[in-house]
């Protein structure tokens, strides 16, 4: 029986006729792809193939890479994302293993020594060829799934929690933890924010004090909103120490407790509240210099913010694609929505915003490819802060416009507007996580001012 009731079959414009238009006025194409309707497909159109639109002048290697990543995302990540968004469970470990086989976890950390000797995406790209544009492709292809909470659930904790280990840990610790995390056997989170300190990182209160023999840290305190924290095995923790802030790698064990926090997106992200009670950690787990944690934390933010810009830019494109299709198929007052100038004007603004974000992003990506990690930390914190602020503001404007364009469906969790509703509900995550919008804009301007000649005058 038709889920919308039997009356549809008695409508004089439906039975025995070409119902393409009537069908698409009320359904998403994916309805036809459900297993129970596969029997209705009587053939395929000869020579039809899917085409990837988007960046122009993309090198052939990147195109091949993008095609392979897209196929993987469509076949494996998309279905898991939709299922986990519904049941709220963590991303499937089976999928994590499939990603390990292609070295996707390692590639999501960006280019670097951790890729050495690995076969990437079945050998499409070598570790030496792999650059930030390849990583951008991975993040943006995953961004197409339209499942914001799941996007964070799928090892986002590692993307922000592992780099301090890769960049600042002692060799033995780095090797052990990197091997475990990049093979998908263990999970790691970045634990900086607290109820007391979010934007104001220097205000954090978790303490680490040394034992009298100076061989261990004793950590006490709490952390809030830690992505993947519910299921992570390791935590990269910002602590207050005698001479400033110090970042320490903590393994789940005695004295570490994690509890889920309910947020507006799905629990599949594993967002946690963490308590550390007299947790004993070897001093060898210190990441970077004692008292020099602020540099470790701030330099780590750059990659995190750039990744968030990649996914924010791609999500905006997803929403525009949805709107372009919808306004083409939805008819009101006897004509398609896209025949209304007001609607086209909204689309124009959306497209202009998304394209400007993507272009700026690619500009900064190019610069990252030509700078060392340290140079990026020194020169790009401001520009990346400004880009993230701009991107997340654009995303919010686009989310609001999209809801208007979709009407009631834009605020309905299932059916044709479900991605629009999801995006509208979760778009502000990008404007808060990894640094709040206003704070990042301010950072960009302050960095620009600090680079001005001191005696600059009109
Ligand atoms: C779902 C989720 C996941 C997260 N994951 C992690 C994680 O994995 N690891 C982690 O360490 N943290 C994580 N966070 C924390 C996140 O980074 C912080 O929420 C964020 O940095 C903002 O801090 P806050 O919420 O304490 O806001 P506050 O710092 O209290 O700021 C509140 C508001 O005031 C504004 N504001 C503050 N200072 C200024 C200023 N100087 N100028 C202008 N405006 C200002 C901000 O823009 C913000 O809108 C997560 C948060 C959420 C909600």
From TrEMBL:
This is Acyl-CoA dehydrogenase. Residues 291-446 form the Acyl-CoA dehydrogenase/oxidase C-terminal domain. Pfam families: Acyl-CoA_dh_1 (PF00441), Acyl-CoA_dh_M (PF02770), Acyl-CoA_dh_N (PF02771). Keywords: FAD, Flavoprotein, Oxidoreductase. The keyword Flavoprotein applies. Belongs to the acyl-CoA dehydrogenase family. InterPro entries: Acyl-CoA_dehydrogenase, Acyl-CoA_DH_CS, Acyl-CoA_Oxase/DH_mid-dom, Acyl-CoA_Oxase/DH_mid-dom_sf, AcylCo_DH-like_C, AcylCo_DH/oxidase_C, AcylCoA_DH/ox_N, AcylCoA_DH/ox_N_sf. Its cofactor is FAD.
């Amino acid at each position: 029986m038709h889920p919308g009731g039997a009356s549809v079959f008695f409508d004089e414009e439906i039975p025995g006729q070409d119902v393409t238009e009537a069908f698409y006025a009320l359904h998403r194409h994916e309805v036809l792809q459900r297993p129970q309707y596969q029997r209705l497909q009587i053939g395929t159109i000869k020579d039809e193939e899917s085409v990837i639109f988007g960046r122009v002048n993309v090198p052939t290697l990147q195109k091949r890479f993008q095609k392979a990543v897209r196929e993987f995302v469509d076949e494996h990540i998309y279905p898991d994302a939709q299922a986990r968004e519904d049941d709220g469970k963590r991303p499937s470990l089976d999928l994590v293993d499939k990603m390990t086989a292609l070295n996707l976890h390692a590639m999501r950390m960006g280019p670097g020594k951790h890729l050495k000797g690995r076969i990437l995406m079945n050998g499409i790209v070598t570790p030496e060829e792999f650059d930030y544009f390849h990583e951008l492709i991975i993040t943006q292809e995953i961004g197409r799934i339209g499942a914001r909470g799941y996007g964070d659930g799928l090892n986002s904790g590692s993307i922000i929690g592992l780099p301090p280990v890769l960049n600042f840990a002692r060799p033995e610790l780095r090797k052990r933890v990197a091997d475990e995390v990049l093979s998908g056997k263990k999970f790691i989170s970045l634990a900086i924010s607290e109820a007391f300190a979010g934007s104001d990182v220097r205000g954090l209160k978790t303490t680490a004090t040394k034992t009298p023999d100076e061989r261990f840290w004793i950590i006490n305190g709490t952390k809030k909103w830690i992505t993947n924290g519910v299921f992570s095995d390791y935590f990269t923790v910002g602590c207050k120490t005698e001479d400033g802030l110090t970042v320490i790698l903590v393994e789940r064990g005695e004295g570490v407790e994690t509890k889920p926090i309910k947020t507006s997106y799905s629990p599949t992200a594993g967002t946690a509240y963490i308590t550390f009670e007299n947790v004993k950690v070897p001093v060898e787990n210190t990441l970077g210099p004692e008292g020099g944690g602020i540099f470790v934390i701030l330099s780590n933010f750059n990659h995190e913010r750039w990744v968030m810009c990649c996914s924010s830019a791609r999500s905006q494109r997803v929403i525009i694609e949805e709107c372009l299709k919808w306004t083409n198929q939805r008819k009101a007052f006897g004509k398609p929505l896209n025949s209304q100038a007001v609607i086209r004007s909204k689309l124009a603004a959306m497209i202009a915003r998304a394209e400007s974000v993507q272009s700026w992003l690619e500009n900064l990506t190019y610069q990252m490819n030509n700078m060392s990690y340290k140079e990026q930390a020194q020169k790009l914190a401001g520009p990346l802060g400004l880009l993230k602020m701009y991107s997340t503001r654009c995303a919010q404007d686009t989310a609001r416009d999209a809801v208007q364009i979709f009407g009631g469906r834009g605020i309905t969790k299932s059916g044709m507007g479900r991605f629009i509703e999801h995006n509208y509900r979760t778009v502000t995550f990008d404007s808060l996580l990894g640094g709040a919008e206003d704070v990042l804009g301010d950072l960009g301007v302050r960095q620009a001012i600090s680079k001005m000649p001191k005696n600059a005058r009109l």
